[in-house]
Design a protein that fits this description.
Strand content: 35-45%
Structural class: alpha+beta
Radius of gyration: 16 Å
Number of helices: 4
Largest sheet: 8 strands, mixed
CATH class: Alpha Beta
Low-confidence stretches: none
Order of helices and strands: HHEEEEHEEEEEEEH
Length: 208
C-alpha cells in the first residue's frame, strides 16, 4: 500500500463502525479474559489517551511508535504509542493525546490532523482505560525524544504489519511468570500487548 492509497482508505473509514474487541483479541495475550467495559469500576480506573500517527516516508505510510525506557513498572521497556495519563488541565482525551505526543516525541499539535477515534481498550495490569486516536503528521516530522521516558522513536512501514511471517507467538517474562503472546516481530522489535491489539484494529479498519 502506497501513501496515496492509504489516504484514500483513510477518507473512507471516517464514518465506519469500529471493529473493537473483535480486532483487539486477534493479538491479545492467551491469558487475557474478554471483559465488557461496563464491568470495569470506572470510579477507580485510570484514564489515558494515545495517538496512532502516520506520516509519508518515500511514498509509503509509516506508523510512529516509541520504545519506553526501563523503569519500575509493568510497561517498562515495552513498545507503545505516544500518549499517557489524562491530566486535570486537559480539555478532553484528544487534548491529552496531543499534549503527550508533543512531550514524548516533540511533534506539535499544529502538525497533526486527527481523523477519528478508535475503540477504547482496558489494560488490566496497570488499570488504565485508554482512548486511542488515529491521525497523520503533516509534512516531514522532526522528532525529539523525551529522554526520561523514551529510549527510541520507531517509525515502521505500515505494510510490514500485514506480512504473515511478521506475526508470531512469543514468550514474554512478566514479573516471575512467563506468558505466551501473539506479537509483531518487525525490524528486530517485538510489539505485543495493548499496542499490538490497537494495531490490529488499525489494520482491520484500514483494510475495509
Amino acid at each position: 500500500m502506497n501513501y496515496l492509497e492509504f489516504e484514500f482508505r483513510l477518507r473512507k473509514i471516517l464514518e465506519e463502525d469500529l471493529p473493537g474487541p473483535e480486532s483487539h483479541f486477534k493479538m491479545a495475550p492467551v491469558n487475557r479474559k474478554r471483559l465488557d467495559l461496563n464491568q470495569i469500576d470506572h470510579t477507580k480506573v485510570k484514564r489515558a489517551a494515545i495517538a496512532a500517527l502516520f506520516f509519508e516516508n518515500n511514498g509509503i505510510p509509516h506508523l510512529v511508535l516509541t520504545l519506553r525506557n526501563k523503569y519500575p513498572g509493568v510497561h517498562s521497556g515495552q513498545i507503545s504509542f505516544p500518549g499517557g495519563k489524562r491530566e486535570k488541565e486537559d480539555v478532553d482525551f484528544m487534548d491529552t493525546a496531543l499534549r503527550e505526543t508533543f512531550e514524548e516525541i516533540g511533534i506539535d499539535r499544529s502538525q497533526i490532523t486527527i481523523h477519528r477515534n478508535l475503540s477504547e481498550l482496558y489494560i488490566p495490569p496497570s488499570n488504565f482505560l485508554v482512548q486511542p486516536f488515529l491521525g497523520v503528521i503533516n509534512g516531514i516530522p522532526n522528532f525529539k525524544a523525551e529522554e526520561k521516558e523514551v529510549q527510541e522513536i520507531l517509525t515502521i512501514d505500515f505494510n510490514k504489519f500485514f506480512e504473515p511471517n511478521n506475526i508470531q507467538g512469543k514468550k514474554i517474562e512478566m514479573g516471575k511468570s512467563t506468558i505466551n503472546v501473539p506479537a509483531y516481530l518487525i525490524d528486530s522489535h517485538t510489539i505485543w500487548g495493548a499496542t499490538a491489539m490497537m494495531i490490529s484494529e488499525l489494520k482491520d479498519l484500514i483494510s475495509k
